[in-house]
Write a structure and sequence with these properties.
Helix content: 25-40%
CATH architecture of the largest domain: 3-Layer(aba) Sandwich
Number of helices: 10
CATH superfamily of the largest domain: HAD superfamily/HAD-like
Shape: globular
Order of helices and strands: EHHEHEEEHEEHEEHEEHEHEHEH
CATH class of the largest domain: Alpha Beta
Oligomer: single chain
Number of strands: 14
Distance between the termini: 8 Å
Largest sheet: 8 strands, mixed
Length: 268
């Protein structure tokens, strides 16, 4: 029986309104009472996720920035892998001439953005961006660089994925978290590798882990865990990358919580 439950957030554990629904919260609290370890595994920033963990009111590891940062159940930073200055400068130099791209950086405790966007401010309750200059971007302690578009045009983002891979494939892990959010981390960073580190810290293995996700940035985690579940609303590329993995329902129906109650709590 699985002892570690790892879940992506947006499109997976959270509602379409990006909240932890009451039923999901109840199930996760019951899992904790049955000695299961819960792990947030997300592309979001650790400060953003810490607020959700406080709301959930259980100790939980946090894999954030797609695995570039890991905090233990007490909130201590136990792992961090930054991007190289070469990759940071390189992807920004390529992307800065596209006026429709929003260029984001997670640097330490900060979220940086290349220009104002009120819709993005509204997305996060208590964690907001600061502006940075693309002509002189920070390069120290940057966990990831990521790119979004207001028009949500996936095919245009695919062209940027191809351009970045052509230049930096061996130096960066480049993956979509959603069809319209392209993320760039260090080559050695993934949610799967971070989950392996969490399992080891808990004196367990990846075989003890069950994981849920919906994005290409979840593929390593879903393939490395003892069992990896794909959301039914995932992009086709995720399902094609993991053809043998079970597909469940949607975040709108709290499919993760229902699966956990049926398969873990009812057998606990």
């Amino acid at each position: 029986m699985f002892k570690i439950v790892a879940s992506d957030l947006d499109g997976t554990l959270l509602t379409p309104e990006h909240k932890i629904a009451p039923y999901t919260q109840e199930v996760l609290q019951r899992l904790y009472q049955h000695d299961k370890h819960f792990v947030f595994a997300t592309g979001r920033h650790h400060i953003d996720v810490a607020g959700m963990r406080e709301e959930l009111n259980i100790p939980a590891y946090m894999i954030t920035s797609n695995g570039a940062s890991v905090h233990d159940a007490d909130g201590n930073l136990v792992f961090q892998q930054s991007l190289s200055p070469e990759v940071i400068r390189g992807v920004i130099a390529l992307a800065k001439h596209d006026p429709d791209l929003h260029i984001h950086l997670y640097q330490g405790d900060h979220w940086l953005l290349n220009h104002e966007n009120e819709a993005l401010r509204d997305f996060h309750d208590s964690f907001n961006y600061q502006l940075f200059d693309v002509e002189n971007p920070p390069t120290d302690n940057v966990l990831k660089v990521f790119f979004t578009r207001d028009d949500l045009d996936h095919e245009k983002m695919v062209k940027w994925e191809q351009a970045f891979n052509q230049e930096f494939k061996d130096k960066a892990n480049i993956a979509f978290s959603t069809p319209w959010c392209l993320e760039v981390m260090d080559a050695g960073v993934s949610k799967g590798d971070a989950l392996a580190a969490v399992a080891k810290a808990l004196e367990l293995t990846l075989d003890d882990c069950i994981a849920f996700g919906d994005g290409m940035n979840d593929v390593e985690m879903l393939s490395m865990a003892g069992k990896g579940l794909i959301m039914g609303t995932s992009h086709d590329k995720v399902k094609q990358a993991l053809p043998d993995n079970e597909v469940i329902g949607s975040s709108a129906d709290e499919a993760v919580a229902h699966y956990l109650e049926k398969h873990l709590l009812n057998h606990a």
